Amino acid sequence: MSIFPEYQDVIAQFKVSSDRLPFYIFSYTARTIPLHYHDFAEFTYVVEGRGTQSVNGAKHRLQPGTVSFVLPQHLHDADNEDEAGIRKLGCMFDIHMLGDLPGNAELSDPLLTVGTALPSCCTLKSPHAERMHGIMTELYEECRNPGIVGHNSFIRAKLTEALLLFLRMAVKERPGSPVVGDESMARSRFRTIMSYIHIHYQKPLTLQQLAGQFCVSIPHITRSFKRHYGVSFLEYVHGLRMKNAAILLLSTNMTIADIALEVGFESFRTFSRVFRESHGRTPSEYRSEGGAATRV
What we know:
The protein has 2 domains: about 5-175, Jelly Rolls; about 185-290, Homeodomain-like (Arc Repressor Mutant, subunit A). It is built from 11 helices and 10 strands. It has helices at about 10-15, 105-110, 130-140, 150-175, 185-200, 205-215, 220-230, 235-250, 255-260, 270-280, 285-290; strands spanning about 5-10, 25-30, 35-40, 40-50, 50-55, 60, 65-70, 75-80, 85-95, 120-125. The chain has a 5-stranded mixed sheet with strand order 1-3-8-5-6, with no helix packed on it. A 5-stranded antiparallel sheet has the order 2-9-4-7-10, covered by helices on one side. α3 (about 130-140) packs antiparallel against α4 and α8 (about 235-250) crosses α10. The longest helix has 23 residues, at about 150-175.
């Protein structure tokens, strides 16, 4: 029987209405969580218990003080070691509720690299662990009193504080990761498009669509990719899709044809060609060899 990652409809599951801030916070005890993904970002703090979590194929240790941030569409699961399970404070939210991410490079640029350049999990030590626990507790209590003045602004402020605390710790764990500094106005404007691509890369994407949606010219998008990333638009999207495909090949037993569709390719032949160019092997060879010796 094929193992497919489950799609979790956060809006339906948590009954998030259109007149509410797209944010849901919870306190729960987790045991085994199957491989899944969703359109919302997820941020959690481990209060008690130990176990492991996999995000995009990378294994992370869970213990008291561990903070985890999972971007939309990232595949993740979890297992516990303690019979009582792992108690967490966590939240799910539409990443755009934080406001003008493209205009806030200090937050948006490193946030979009979590799971690639930056780790998805890090374990905080005292006093940072206590501070994070306090922030999450404040968020939890705030959501139980939605009628008070400044409710939505308080949630955004506290969530931003929690994310920045996590990012500072994550950067320390990966000291070679790029840290955002002063950027040009051109790149600042381009971040809106990049944020959209990172969330929707599994869906059909074209330069024409992006140009029309964001009211910019196709040459502007093309030049921006070459200037800021050194690759074309198509090469960048293919790179995101190939990373996702490699994870699915190793973490599920989905058919290769199903994986091609899952990551955004309508043509199996095109998927196979791009995968071989990216990884130096066919998808079936990559799976049988366990992903070792990849060129990516």
